[in-house]
């Protein structure tokens, strides 16, 4: 047996360059062959070829942290630990080989690994390109339009040598938020710059503002962010709809992943943060004239009212409001049957909503009396309104507020302007303001970190539930039409959950 293997390796010695070229041009069939060829080639002094062999070897594992030139052929143990991390061969398995490796000739060492490798039966997909470049894919658009028309799936390579201030990231999950779709459509308040940084044929944007990544490697071994950590974007319009990314350290924020699911970590930084900021910063007039306002008082049982209560932001506001001792009136749209509507109301009540009403009820003449009943004949004030919708719903929301209250518009789901009776401004002194999380994040970086940690703690303690999710698996072979359709559907109402890309074998 050993003799046969010996002959194989000799064959490799004499056909080195051609063999390697051939191997590079065919897709990988067996990780063990990779191990065999890599080691054998190394042993016969083909160091110069090893970078090319990374391409083949990467069938088993991304090779971003692999520098073949540092492998000492005479040190079996070091050899093994590198192999173990490269090929995901369990260390125990390798250490068994190690005894035989030491006893064997160089040629035999390679073959021992080949024989023992549990990957030898497996067919493994090629994951990196020439010279150890990580193969990545990203959704991109090079002009604005409907997602199904303009999104493309672009394949690109990430260099194994990243700067000391950078990290290489693998995506775990990234939601499809309304703002992402509006960005693609070109209707969002700020537009990212179109660039050719990832080698698209025309300048493009990678959409996706939110998500969570696992750190694959760091440019600096002493970096505060380590391999295996989870990070979320620290900057707006990061471009999360991609399988891998290289980011500067200050573009990401490390989060403590303990007890968190990737889908939870991926959805904290936009919707819960919006609800958190609004509830903690906005509220009724201070009563001193001008536009001064105070936030609702924690633990006071003060009321706020919101439309779009079934949205990600709405659900977060219900839960945070409850946790902070506030009371909420929540407006939702009717479902397709009374039973479904009741089920939705019950769900929001279970999250902590005090009152849930349908939009029809809210827009009816009877609402005024019903509201008076809820607020103890108007003696309890409603000092804050959260407008997610616009149009008639926003007008009715403004009318429901008490004197001196503030209505914060943060969304425009109905795509209709907000019309306000002048009397509300003059006689009721209602304040109408807008809210944009990106601006807050830019202006209060430390506050953002504190808020994210606070929300993560609440999730970990089981006090904060994420929104219902509609998971969209994204693997290496997932095609563009599947991904683009999911994005296109993201703005449709009455969804069973928020679309979220969940990255698998990428
Ligand atoms: N300003 C900011 O900084 C900021 C931050 C976060 C979010 N937002 C905005 O907040 C809004 C909600 O975002 P999200 O991620 O929480 O949403 P989401 O979870 O995707 O849910 C969308 C919500 O919008 C409702 N909706 C859709 N079309 C509607 C219509 N025509 N009339 C009334 N309601 C409609 C849906 O109601 P159903 O459940 O009945 O279908 C659903 O509850 C978006 O406009 C988003 O851009 C703004």
Automatic annotation (TrEMBL):
Gene3D superfamilies with a match to the protein in the record = Medium-chain alcohol dehydrogenases, catalytic domain, NAD(P)-binding Rossmann-like Domain
| Chief localisation class | mitochondrion
- Tagged with keyword NADP: yes
| Record's catalysed reaction(s) | a 2,3-saturated acyl-[ACP] + NADP(+) = a (2E)-enoyl-[ACP] + NADPH + H(+)
Q: Which domain of life is it from?
A: Eukaryota
* TM region positions: none
Matching InterPro entries, A to Z? ADH-like_C, ADH-like_N, ER, GroES-like_sf, Mito_Enoyl-ACP_Reductase, NAD(P)-bd_dom_sf
What PANTHER family does UniProt report for this protein, alphabetically? Answer: ENOYL-[ACYL-CARRIER-PROTEIN] REDUCTASE, MITOCHONDRIAL
Family membership, please give it.
Answer: Belongs to the zinc-containing alcohol dehydrogenase family. Quinone oxidoreductase subfamily.
**UniProt-recorded name of the protein:** enoyl-[acyl-carrier-protein] reductase
* Organism whose genome encodes this protein: Trichoderma simmonsii
């Amino acid at each position: 047996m050993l003799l046969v293997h010996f002959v194989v390796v000799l064959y490799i010695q004499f056909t080195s360059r051609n063999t390697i070229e051939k191997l590079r041009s065919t897709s990988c069939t067996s990780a063990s062959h990779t191990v065999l060829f890599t080691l054998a080639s190394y042993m016969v002094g083909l160091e110069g070829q090893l970078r090319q062999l990374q391409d083949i070897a990467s069938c088993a594992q991304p090779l971003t942290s692999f520098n073949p030139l540092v492998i000492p052929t005479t040190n079996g143990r070091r050899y093994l630990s590198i192999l173990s991390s490269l090929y995901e061969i369990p260390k125990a398995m390798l250490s068994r080989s190690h005894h035989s490796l030491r006893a064997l000739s160089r040629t035999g060492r390679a073959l021992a690994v080949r024989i023992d490798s549990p990957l030898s039966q497996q067919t493994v997909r090629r994951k990196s390109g020439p010279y150890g470049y990580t193969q990545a894919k990203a959704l991109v658009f090079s002009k604005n339009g409907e997602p199904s028309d303009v999104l493309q799936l672009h394949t690109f390579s990430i260099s194994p040598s990243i700067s000391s201030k950078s990290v290489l990231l693998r995506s775990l999950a990234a939601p499809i938020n309304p703002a992402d779709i509006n960005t693609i459509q070109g209707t969002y308040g700020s537009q990212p710059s179109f660039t050719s940084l990832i080698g698209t044929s025309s300048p493009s944007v990678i959409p996706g503002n939110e998500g969570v990544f696992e750190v694959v490697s760091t440019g600096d071994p002493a970096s505060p962010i380590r391999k295996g950590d989870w990070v979320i974007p620290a900057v707006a319009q990061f471009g999360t709809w991609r399988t891998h990314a290289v980011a500067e350290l200050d573009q990401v924020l490390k989060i403590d992943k303990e007890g968190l699911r990737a889908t939870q970590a991926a959805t904290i930084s936009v919707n819960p943060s919006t609800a958190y900021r609004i509830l903690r910063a906005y509220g009724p007039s201070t009563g001193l004239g001008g536009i001064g306002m105070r936030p609702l008082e924690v633990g006071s049982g003060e009321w706020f009212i919101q439309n779009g209560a079934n949205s990600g932001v709405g659900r977060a506001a219900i839960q945070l409001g409850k946790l902070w001792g506030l009371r909420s009136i929540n407006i939702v749209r009717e479902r397709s049957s009374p039973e479904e509507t009741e089920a939705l109301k019950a769900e929001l009540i279970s999250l902590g909503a005090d009152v849930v009403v349908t939009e029809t009820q809210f827009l009816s003449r009877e609402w005024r009396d019903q509201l008076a009943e809820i607020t103890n004949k108007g003696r309890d004030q409603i000092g804050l309104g959260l407008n997610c919708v616009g149009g008639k719903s926003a007008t009715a929301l403004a009318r429901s507020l008490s004197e001196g209250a503030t209505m914060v518009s943060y969304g425009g789901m109905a795509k209709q302007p907000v019309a306000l009776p002048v009397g509300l401004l003059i006689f009721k002194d209602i304040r109408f303001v807008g809210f944009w999380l990106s601006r807050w994040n830019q202006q209060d970086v430390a506050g953002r970190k504190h808020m994210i940690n606070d929300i993560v703690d609440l999730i970990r303690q089981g006090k904060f539930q994420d929104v219902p999710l509609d998971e969209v698996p994204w693997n290496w072979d997932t095609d563009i039409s599947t991904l683009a359709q999911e994005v296109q559907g993201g703005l449709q109402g009455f969804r069973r959950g928020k679309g979220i890309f969940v990255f698998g074998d990428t």
